[in-house]
Amino acid sequence: MSVRYDVEEALELIFSDVQQDNSDSEEEVEDVSEEEDGEEYNPEHDESSSEEEENPEAERETFLSKNGKITWSSAAYNQHGRHAEQNVIKMTPGPTRYAVSHAHDIVSTFYLFITPAIEKIILEMTNLEGFRKYGDSWKKMDETDLQAYLGLLILAGVYRSRGEAAASLWDAESGRSIFRATMPLKLFHTYSRLLRFDDRESRPARRVTDKLAAIREVWDKWVERLPYLYNPGPDVTVDEQLVPFRGRCPFRQYMPSKPAKYGIKAWVACDAKSSYAWKMQVYTGKPTSGCPEKNQGMRVVLDVTEGLRGHNVTCDNFFTSYELGQQLLKRKITMVGTVRKNKPELPPALLASKEREVFSSKFAFTPMTTVVSYFPKKNKNVVLMSTLHKDSDISDRGDRKPVIILDYNRNKGGVDNLDKVIGTYSCRRMTARWPLVIFHNIIDVSSYNAFVIWREINPTWISHKKNKRRVFLEQLGKALVTPLIERRKHVPRTEASAAVVKAIQSAGAPDKPEDPATTATSPASANEEREEQHVGAVMASCLTGALLHVITSGPARGRKPAIEAE
Q: Where does the PiggyBac transposable element-derived protein domain lie (predicted)?
């Protein structure tokens, strides 16, 4: 049955159907949204959240540095961990292939640093000075004499005789017999007095432009050997070393924070783990022009880290600066160091100490640099800068130290440890000549670097002993003096020293050849003779080692030596 509607009723019915369809579609949208509320959040489905991700600056607090040139942020940038490009080390840490192939024994390892070229300069200049002083009566110094002299210096350091007069070392009763067995005290004093490293007559002209002219050639040849023999690990320490000296020197420094206070300062870059001295540079004071050097700390770090790539450099507040960090990044090197609070690149907001809690940390970031301000105690603010760390990591320790500080504390002591181990068995002697002081430091650093190389090449060497370095130095010193003792013609008057000379000479004396025309032996007798010679050589070697071990320990004061010459 059809129903008829007039125009008004038809329009009213149509509008009611459209409204019903719209209400049904709204209910369907609401149902879908309710189902999606239980799903995991996906930022791609949320336009507003994606905009916040793309614009993190909306949540950052920014502040300018003191000089207004650097904008720091309170939030870290989206970079985590080390940059692979800047911390990939191309060189294998440890002794180089050249060092491994040439370090056959302890003496050869030491002479990787004191090269024949250096020996030649010392011998030539020392003999030149000797002829000027004594004329034709001067007995020319040769390689064996120089080796023995260096061996006695090293042995004096092993026996902790740095502050002891040389006469007491040569004393017949209380001294060490190995010293009298090697050379007379008068000859040792003569070598110490005449040892030269350049021509004294041509020195004034060279000293006009070079304050280190008296030892420059030897120093340069020695320094260039250091990086050639060892590759540092991932962490390198840069700091200053003060060689004690109170005599006259145009570039002597006063450093009240150092134990010696007065001395010759050298910049050192060394491996943070082994304390191997990788590069060194003597500080000779202000330039000859008289103008003070600007950005000296940055220049020093760039000089002593030349050749590194992928390493991290740890330095103190004398060197650390924002500009240094950027320059090192260009070489693919990162930096961690303390910063002086008067640096213009620091933001004032980071240095404010009011209302700061103890053990609190405050960070500031640029895309490549991180600065942290840490409060270890009340009114004590420590500021560090790093291009290695990219976030605000805090340790789980009770003092809540930032990871930047922990990394700095772990690697900052490389040069300080080098000073400590060198000072323990230093060969330094009392002298008024500063070139000799630098030469003594060359011997100390060379012997320690040689020990590091020898220990890493031979990790099982005397593994049962703790004082490995003392044993290394003692064996090195005895090996250096042995050639001179073997060729010595006059035996010392003291019984103990004479016993040392006779034992070493008998152990090193070659067997006398026999006349084949008058001696005819069978193969069996020849084998017996070779066995007897071998046994005799072993016994002589054992006797020599026993004598050196017992005699060099020194007799008790006021008593006769325990071993007498037969």
A: 108-451
Measured CA to CA, the distance from residue 112 to residue 107 in angstroms comes to 9
The C-alpha atoms of residue 313 and residue 412 are separated, in whole angstroms, by: 9
Q: At what angle do helices 322-330 and 296-304 cross, to 10 degrees?
A: 30
**Rounded distance between C-alpha atoms, residue 157 and residue 163, angstroms:** 10
249-300 pLDDT per residue, tens? 999 999 998 889 999 999 999 999 999 999 999 999 887 767 788 889 999 9
* Integer angstrom CA distances of residue 159 from 60, 107, 370, 473: 63, 19, 48, 10
The residue-averaged pLDDT of 482-496 equals 85
Summarize pLDDT for 198-251 with one digit per residue, the tens: 999 999 999 999 999 999 999 999 999 999 999 999 999 999 999 999 999 999
Structure tokens at 294: 């600007």
Give every CB contact of residue 86 below 8 A, 6+ residues apart in sequence: 310, 329, 332, 333, 334, 387
**What are the chain's domains?**
99-203+428-499 (no CATH), 233-423 (3.90.350.10)
Q: Which residue has the higher pLDDT, 279 or 379?
A: 279
Nearest-5° angle of CA 508, CA 514, CA 519? 150
3-class state of residue 98 by DSSP = helix
Question: Cα(126)–Cα(435) distance, rounded to whole angstroms?
Answer: 13
Nearest to 448 by CA among 163, 162, 109: 109
Q: Residue 188 and residue 444: Cα distance in Å, rounded? A: 19
CA 538 distance to own-chain centroid: 41
398 token code pair: 């009770």
More confident residue, 106 or 561: 106
* β-pair partners for 119: none
Burial of residue 290, with CB atoms counted within 10 A of its CB: 0-12 exposed, 13-18 middle, 19 or more buried = exposed
pTM: 0.79
- Sign of the Cα torsion 225, 226, 227, 230 reads positive
Residue 131 backbone phi and psi in degrees, to 5: -65, -35
Distance CA 20, CA 357 (A): 64
Q: What is the largest CA-CA distance in the chain?
A: 157
Interacting residues of 525 by C-beta distance below 8 A, sequence separation 6+: none
